[in-house]
Amino acid sequence: MSKLPTSFHVNARAVAFLAIFLFASLAPGGAARAQSSVLIGLDADMSSASAEAGEAIRRGVLLAMEEINAAGGLLGRPLELVVRDHRGNPARGRDNMLEFSGMPDLLAVVGGLHTPVALQELQIIHERRIIYLGAWAAGTPIVENNYDPNYVFRVSVRDEFAGGFLVKNAIEQGSSRVGLLLERTGWGRSNEKAITAALEEQGLAPTGIEWFNWGIPDMSEHIDRLHAAGADEIILVANPPEGLVAVKSMAARPENDRLPIISHWGITGGTFPEMAGDLLDQVDLSFLQTFSFVTPPFPERARRVFQRYRTMFPDVKSVDGVLAPPGTAHAYDLVHLLALAVRQSGSLDREAVRDAMEHIKSYEGLMRDYAPPFTPDRHDALNAEDFIIARYGENGAIVPDPPTGQ
To answer: Where does residue 344 rank: exposed (0-12), middle (13-18), buried (19+ CB within 10 A)?
Structure first.
């Protein structure tokens, strides 16, 4: 069993998210669920280090379900969300998938954070023929899993593409000697492979590779070794607790010895800016993203969705206040793609819907114009062209880099 992060501090926002999802996840067959409902499961981190990502995914699913239900549901039946919290624990994720597989009205499960959890669930997903919609987990083997037929479909980052994107941006920022600071998990190993391959394509190699475990209290020695090896920038692969440790350790160095950090998107799945506070002014930190309501690829589509978002979730007043926007955008598009597959197949049978997912011709989504989103040989809908670099702005808002208007 993988060790849970120990450095996460449960704050009021995380507690609120937990209360929301508990209310929304009454057991199947309870009084709150009509017998005719078609169930979509959500298996995500709802209460631990990446609770904001889980909540962002939940909001994207609910936004899409509201639209689908307003149009008559799927084959005349309404959709309903059932939420389970894996808390970043692969064993808990397996238990959740087993529970979902026993729900007779289940159509699909949307999954989010983390790669180690999703990898642990693959066997059950395919043995029980559960359509798994990956909204936030980047490990390449989640989709390239050697199962045939493959029941995993992803609208999210793929590490194989992220590696090249991060290397490209590091070079554009002036780096020629990149050091890697990676978590010791399946996600970290997936990124080591992708980043090393991307560097090799540029005639380069990692200046150094440092590994860390979840719960590590200090990374000063890791950064010291990378600096001593000659690294002029660090590519970080971490979730919020360990990302915070990396930034604290970097900020503790003399100002002239601080290296820029370009991070994978894992740090943005929790309350990172609140935890980091003034440290963000002391470290040059940028990170990968896929979507922003501040500068969306299709402004009118995003405007319509944000209007409904603000009505459904009145805690958010402006576009720069949306929680972990990629999670919402990915989940929103995935649920609409699932609905298209149901209509195309004329069935709620999971095998038939899975087959139809591979043959959707097109969909105009929040993220992109999918044409097609998936094929029998490609179950990743996004590529590096969909990625952006972002930073934390005022009040912890995620803003594209360069910001709007520059």
So the answer is: middle
Q: What integer pLDDT is reported at residue 28 of this predicted model?
A: 40
Residue 77 identity (one-letter amino acid): R
How does the average pLDDT of the chain come out, rounded?
91
Q: Are 181 and 210 in contact (CB under 8 A)?
A: yes
User: What are the C-alpha distances in Å from 174 to residues 103, 177, 181?
Assistant: 53, 9, 19
| pTM, entire model | 0.88
The residues, any chain, with a CB within 8 Å of residue 374's CB and separated by 6 or more, are: 153, 337, 357, 358, 360, 381
Question: Mind listing the pLDDT tens digit for each residue in 262-312?
Answer: 999 999 988 899 999 999 999 999 999 999 999 999 999 999 999 999 999
Say if residue 140 is in the same domain as residue 246.
no
d(CA 219, CA 13): 27
What is the separation of C-alpha 137 from the centre of its chain, rounded to a whole number of angstroms?
A: 5
337 Cβ contact list (under 8 Å, min separation 6):
153, 155, 357, 360, 363, 365, 370, 373, 374, 381
Same domain, yes or no, for 126 and 178? no
pLDDT at position 270 is 80
- Helix and strand counts by DSSP (H, E) for the chain: 13, 14
Whether residue 343 lies inside any domain: the answer is yes
The SS3 of residue 180 is strand
Q: Which domain holds residue 357?
A: 12-157+298-383
